[in-house]
Amino acid sequence: MTHVHDALDAAEAQYRLGVVHTTDNRNWEFNQGSTLAAMRASRSTAVDMESATIAGNGFRYRIPNATLLCVSDKPLHASPKLSASASAFYEASKRQHLGIALTCLDRVRREHPGGLPSHDIRSSDEPLFEVD
């Protein structure tokens, strides 16, 4: 997380840290009750559908990871996100977003030339993949 935070500061990017609620329901906005209840309970600052696999597997296999999300809209404002405004947003922000991610990767490569130290976060008797 420090790597992402430092890269965001260096890029003078506007950002907010927080919990992100992840759902696989693409139509959650049409039935907000349960999703909003879960978001309030977890004190989430955003909703995401794409990064759950990365976070879930990182947790399962004890692989250090962070997710840098680019929030492009406020879905609860009751107005549809129009494709022209979405395209303008992505065009303006994608280079900066990619630059921040590459800065993080460069730092990881410099600080850990042999790869991430997963042995520090996994006990010596815990296998990477469980075998029955």
Low-confidence stretches: none
Let me know the number of strands. 2
How much is the radius of gyration in Å? 18 Å
Spatial strand order of the main sheet: 1-2
Structural category is mainly alpha
The level of helicity is 40-55%
Helix and strand sequence? HEHEHH
Percent in strands: under 5%
User: How many separate structural domains?
Assistant: 1
Distance between the termini: 34 Å
Main sheet: strands, sense, barrel: 2 strands, parallel
Total of DSSP H or I helical runs spanning 4+ residues: 4
Which geometry do the CA atoms define? flat
The pLDDT mean sits at 77
How would you describe this protein?
By secondary structure, the protein is mainly α. The chain has one domain. It contains 4 helices and 2 strands. Strands 1-2 form a two-stranded parallel sheet. β1 (20-22), α2 and β2 form a beta-alpha-beta unit. The longest helix is centred in the last third of the chain and has 29 residues, at 83-111. The chain is flat and about 50 Å long. The two termini are 34 Å apart.
Tell me the layout of helices and strands:
Elements: H1 2-10, E1 20-22, H2 32-42, E2 46-48, H3 52-60, H4 83-111
Parallel strand pairs: 1-2
Helix pairs in contact: 1-4
